[in-house]
Write a structure and sequence with these properties.
Elements (H helix, E strand, L loop, with lengths): L1 H4 L6 H7 L5 H11 L7 E5 L5 H8 L3 E6 L2 H10 L5 E3 L12 E7 L7 H11 E14 L4 H14 L15 E14 H9 L2 H6 L1 H14 L8 E14 L1
Parallel strand pairs: 1-2, 1-4, 2-3, 4-5
Antiparallel strand pairs: 5-7, 6-7
């Protein structure tokens, strides 16, 4: 698990350049389910990566601190977000004071934790009434071309497999929400986004290039102008403590 999670360090610049952001409606849902605004709240964004979610939390008015274990991701975070503090650590051993935060957020990161450790840590760090917000931003496989590409990816990567999905064991989830959104990007950006995922990072450059070259030949029939509409579903879970 650790080696897979740390695979992003070598591709941190690619990750920051091509991974999708999050829609405003997601943060509206976080506030609604938590019963309080992000503005003025003290937030720790755990597994912050290059700071995609962290920067958006700050833009909502939160007093936000990033927690990130990876060297490459933390370095890219600092380049992209020089005004946001970042500390090194992970959700299993939060380097944070007890009862110090109103929100803990995990954007695409909770599945890298051990819930047996991360849940008690979240309860320790959150203030009474605080909220743990977990979300995953996935391409929408109800869209036929996404489902077909997903099947090709699964067949190609074989035993490497996709990363583990979320578990909320030990958490009293008080609210869930799905937020659908999309973005339009160049075909090459879509392929670079796919290549930034851990399965391809573990697969290696040559095999990844083989898959992406095949997609580069296949997808223009669907997107002749070279612009891809990427549909997403953000799955949000919130637990109050």
């Amino acid at each position: 698990m650790t080696s897979r999670a740390r695979s992003f360090d070598a591709a941190a610049a690619q990750y920051r350049a091509y991974r999708p952001a999050y829609p405003a409606a997601l943060f509206d849902a976080v506030e609604e389910l938590a019963g309080r605004p992000l503005a003025g709240a003290r937030v720790a964004d755990v597994g912050a990566g290059t700071g995609i979610a962290t920067a958006l939390l700050r833009a909502r008015g939160a007093e936000v601190l990033a927690v990130e274990p990876g060297d490459g991701m933390a370095a890219e975070f600092r380049r992209a977000n020089p005004g946001i503090p970042i500390v090194r650590g992970d959700g299993d051993r939060l380097p944070l004071a007890s009862a110090a935060f109103d929100f803990l957020t995990y954007a695409q990161a909770w599945h890298w934790t051990d819930p047996a450790r991360a849940v008690p840590e979240a309860r320790r760090v959150l203030r009474p009434g605080g909220a743990l917000a977990l979300w995953w931003n996935d391409l929408d496989t109800t869209v036929p071309w996404i489902a077909e590409q997903d099947a090709r990816i699964r067949a190609f990567i074989g035993e490497i497999g996709l990363p583990p999905r979320e578990t909320t064991d030990g958490l009293d989830i008080t609210g869930r929400r799905e937020v659908r959104w999309s973005r339009r990007i160049p075909l090459e950006a879509h392929l670079a986004n796919q290549a930034s995922h851990s399965a391809f990072l573990l697969l290696g450059e040559a095999r990844t290039r083989e898959f992406m070259d095949a997609e580069r030949e296949r997808l223009p029939a669907l997107f002749p102008d070279g612009s891809v509409e990427e549909p997403y579903v953000v799955s949000l879970s919130v637990a109050l403590v």
